[in-house]
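haha ok so turns out i had the wrong file open the whole time. this is the CORRECT one, sorry everyone. sequence first:
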Amino acid sequence: MPTAVDALVAEVARAIDADLPALTSELTAWFTEVIPEFQHDEAIRGLMVASTSSNLVAIVDLLRHSIPVEQISVPGAAAEYARRFAQHSLSLEALLRAYRLGENRFTQWSITALDRIGGVPTDLALAAVAELSRRTNSYIDQVIEGLIDIYETERRLWNSRMGAARAAQIRLVLESENLSEAEACHLLGIPMSGWHTAAVAWMPAEGPSAAGMLDATARLIQEVSGPGTPLTLLDDERTMWVWVQQPAPRHLDLNRLSEGVAGLAAEVRVVLGAQAPGLDGFRGSLREAIRTRAVVENAQNRALRVLAFDDVAVAALLTENSEDLERWIVRVLGDLATDAPGNRELRDTIRVFFESGSSYTQAATRLHLHKNTVHYRIRKAEELLGRPLTDDRLDVEVALLARALLWRRRPLPATASARTPGHYN
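then structure:
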């Protein structure tokens, strides 16, 4: 026999059911406002509304008819919405947060409906609120358990179907020397003419499942970089390559990225290549990020979580003579790296000036020049560099030495067209 509490719970459920269309609209609008992942296009938004409605109907039926929670299964629309969430690489955490927010809002509606009924003894009203909360919470727990399995299963299936094809396309772009920018754009669906920043995110061998955490890291990198969808590739089960694209150079706030990475539940490390344009930049930025990872993994500072290539370029590059080394030389020296008339004398003068303890007199003696000539050359070099020689002196000194001894690139024109904005501008 139904108890007085059961009867009151059923009456509250009927009151909510009478307002369910309006309450569903209220809840879906709130989800869209407070959860960024719920700001979908219209097609997916329609599925979100159907998912919310089906869950509310199921909860009302549970309360009205005292249905045992063990008989509850995930509503079809809610299951499909979880699959779409997985397919679009949206976070499971956001989906589960919506269910907990919805549970809280449903409890508020129940209290409001109970108040409207009126004339209910206080002890009965408190017992009904407790029972409403218990049953609603049991429903949410039961559905969430099913949703987690649905989401993770779909994520694995989607990655296996789409990931393999996408990985093959990305690796073709990375490895095919004769591929044009137009062909790369067609394969990947992103404008190769834009500016690219590559990142490598990885987790230690021990620890929780990496897939969801790496997805969250990719979204962090994109949020710091600006609007758009990151291009990602799982290099292995605990390592993800990430590219973000911008139509023009854009500074990436490493402090903000570091704060976001530090806030993740599990240990994740992120390294970034320098921002660069075109297909060469797409490839080169990744190579730089991979080299930076080697620096991080060999570093004694195990607390290091985020690092940019330009902050450790000397350590990352001088182990071998490479195209990346030459790209870095151009980025450090700018127009001073070119073969314009007089540039070689300017570079030699700076090197001797540094070796002489930044003494104009000693440099002039070693170069068999007048002291004023050394002054003039230093000022001219600083104009080409776009900054004083005292800024980033170590990098300038190493780049000058590498330019003199390791340069194998074809002669650069009078203007360093390969120069990129970033750490040194």
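The longest helix spans residues 122-175.
again sry for the mixup
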